[in-house]
Amino acid sequence: MKQQLYLLLNEFVTEFNQKKIFFLQDQSFRHAIRFGNYAVKGSKRYSKSYGYDTAFTLDTGVLPQLLGNFIRNFATSKKLYDFVAEHNLWCEKFDSFEDSQQIMPSIITRIGGGFLCRNFELNGNEFEITQRSFDTAFNELLAFFGKDIVEYYLYAHLRGCNGDIDSISLTEDVSIVKADYEMAKFYSINYYVNQVHGIEMFEGDYLLKIKFVVPKTEYRSNDIGKHNLIERQTLDKWLHVPLLAISGFVDLGKRTRFSDDWPLLYNRIIGPFGNESKLPENNFSKITDQTVLKLNLIGSFLQNLRDITAIDENIKHSIERLRKSKSSKDINDRTVELAMAFEYLINTHNTEVTYQLTLKAIKLFDPNNIDREIFKNLKKFYNFRSKVVHGNAKLDVKIATPLIDYAEGLLQKIIVRMIELNQKYTYIAIDTALSESIYISKPIEELLDMPAKPLV
Q1: How do residues 209-266 score in pLDDT, each as one tens digit?
Q2: Cα–Cα distance, 203 to 182 (Å, whole number)
């Protein structure tokens, strides 16, 4: 079988080379090219200055589709389909070559178009097929046919993080890693908007890296497969780790996929797309040994969580406000978003809001707390919040930042505590117990488990 497939692909490539000029002359071809700027090798995000170059790359999501449309009438495309069907090499079954073409992207798009695209990629984005690139792509295709699974890595850019720690392992399949030159170049070219908004990624930027192993039968590259739900839920779960563990600015940026299993997973650039502004000057989150401890602690907590999507809406709203706070460039905006995050999380009545919130925050951790730190600092934080909301003053960055950082750290702890409690109790039950805790000096769990006494 191996020799037959090798000869068939050689014949297919010969037919493409004979007709390649017509493909390159097609105007739609330009949609498969991405031009962009990237920082020269060795440049770091917080360098005082850096040089940049401009280059192009092939959009591996668009190009196979265009190639699939071009090669669908090739004589060798029909032969390639028949060979795959005869040897039962594909995870979907079709009655005929014509039927298979109705599903986009078709088998021929994914195998024939993908094979050509992979060769171009291996040759530095040149539209050439060499013996070396042919053999590499062929061996990858053969390996893919021999597996029952699709393996790939998803990367999410953690914009704004900086530090000297190269890699942080959260689980066997999840880690936080630094971008090398090639990764930074890839992101910058593919997500380039315009020079006003700077370079998308630099060497040394941090990324969340997640490994996925999906049965072929559950994977569909046209985004209707069961794997998409698994991917979204997994990514959503692990994006909570930097939000709940890292102090200061963190912006959850662009995402991409990488895999040698290109016949199914060809779409690398998955967004989010948008014209984003530069990161704030000299405002970044330092990844230290202490940060690593927090990341591992939160990572372990979330790994054992049944389903983070099942948490109460109030907690979700609080997390979203925390996310907005951590991506805010202005300390006044950050203060308001943090205050809203607290108020979604801890219910208060119309009077003495600060008093109720601080007391309930304390009771979440210790019913007999004698440390005045939470009460004192949270009260000061809410004084800052009142100044901003009521327009009395703008905050002084140097004076306010330490207290805002403290409030954020406390909020992160409270969110984790509330998620933990919400695994067993409803938000309404937790809220009721917190209100009772102001008057009854018992642990929250004990108040939650206390049966209601009948009125006498």
Answers
A1: 999 998 888 776 555 566 778 888 899 999 999 999 999 999 888 999 999 999 888 7
A2: 8
**How distant is the alpha carbon of residue 324 from its chain centre?**
16
Strands 251-258 and 149-159: antiparallel
What is the C-alpha to C-alpha distance for residues 90 and 85, in angstroms, rounded to an integer?
7
Cβ-defined contacts of 396-404 (< 8 Å, 24+): 397/331, 400/331, 400/335, 401/331, 403/377, 404/331, 404/334, 404/335, 404/338
Rounded CA-CA distance 29/395 in Å is: 52
Positive or negative, the CA dihedral 36, 37, 43, 45 is negative
Local structure of residue 109 (DSSP, 8 states):
I
Reported pTM = 0.88
Q: How far apart are CA 52 and CA 42, in angstroms?
A: 11
3-state secondary structure of 150: strand
Nearest-angstrom CA–CA distance, 350 and 353? 7
Name the 3-class secondary structure at 344. Answer: helix
